[in-house]
Amino acid sequence: MDGGTEEDDPSPRSTRPAEEAYNRGMVYAERKNPDPDVVIDVRNDYEIRIGKFKGAVDPCTTAFRDFPSWVEDRFKLADSGDKVESSGSTGASDKLTKEKGSKKVPRVAMYCTGGIRCEKASSFLLSEGFEEVYHLEGGILRYLEEVPKTESLWEGECFVFDKRVSVEHGLVQGTFKLCYGCKKPVSDADMKSPEWEYGVSCPYCFSSKSEEEKERARARQKQFERWGIIGGPDKGRRPAKTVDFSEPCTAQMSKSL
């Protein structure tokens, strides 16, 4: 959100994040601002499953499109004005302290992997009457890169959408692998489950897949292995065969002589 004009900003009324973070898992526009009333992880459930900030609320969404309905249910959004009410407390970071007349408006802090989803979530919350909305500058990735593990409030690993699958503090590659059946992270313990089958299913997608889908996945995996893509579909095509042109060239030269 740094730079650009207000017209370029998708959420022009949001509180601009500060350049410098302090270790509460969030970045505020001013250091004097009090702690947020609720810290929300706006990522999907399978991402949160392997790591999150201590005390953060998990919306249990499977896709970002579910976030607006979760907010509506969670805070019991009213139709009139900017009235926002909390549906209850789930932890130390989930309390209401700011009051506007008879209305209680929570200060909301959010975070996601790199900050993009927070921009969309901020715009939505502000349109629904929330007045103080903050987010983690640079997302979890910047936090893990800059904050030492000994001082960190992060618990677990962070899911990333590349071949690393997950990262830890210092952005070191994590321990999770990817289920090619559902594209979700799995641990070593998950891969010991009887529901785990490489390239086909894992404990998180086994029951949702039909036998027909599993058979198709097995056939696909056999093709990958047959064509040399042993590591799975993200490894690319098998290497091209090396062709020795020395003999044909020699024969052609002999004919020309």
Give a quick rundown of the structure.
The chain has helices spanning 45-48, 67-75, 116-127, 139-146, 211-226, 246-256, and strands at 38-41, 51-53, 99-100, 103-104, 108-111, 133-135, 154-156, 158-159, 166-167, 177-179, 184-186. With 257 residues, the chain is of the alpha/beta class. The radius of gyration is 25 Å and the shape is globular.
What does this structure look like?
This is Rhodanese-like domain-containing protein 7. InterPro entries: Rhodanese-like_dom, Rhodanese-like_dom_sf, TrhO. Residues 33-152 form the Rhodanese domain. Pfam families: Rhodanese. With 257 residues, the protein is an alpha/beta fold. 23% of the residues lie in helices and 12% in strands. It contains 6 helices and 11 strands. A 3-stranded parallel sheet has the order 1-5-6, covered by helices on one side. It has a two-stranded antiparallel sheet with strand order 2-7. A hairpin with a 4-residue loop joins strand 10 (177-179) and strand 11. The longest helix is centred in the C-terminal third of the chain and has 16 residues, at 211-226. Mean pLDDT is 76; it is low at 1-33 and 85-102.
Number of strands: 11
Order of helices and strands: EHEHEEEHEHEEEEEHH
Structural class: alpha/beta
Mean pLDDT value: 76
Q: Radius of gyration in whole Å, from Cα?
A: 25 Å
Number of helices: 6
Report the end-to-end length measured between terminal Cα atoms.
71 Å
Strand order of the largest sheet: 1-5-6
**Dominant shape:** globular
Q: Main sheet, how many strands, which sense, barrel? A: 3 strands, parallel
The helix fraction, in percent, is: 10-25%
- How big a fraction of the residues is strand? 5-15%
**Are there runs of 5+ residues with pLDDT below 50, and where?**
1-33, 85-102
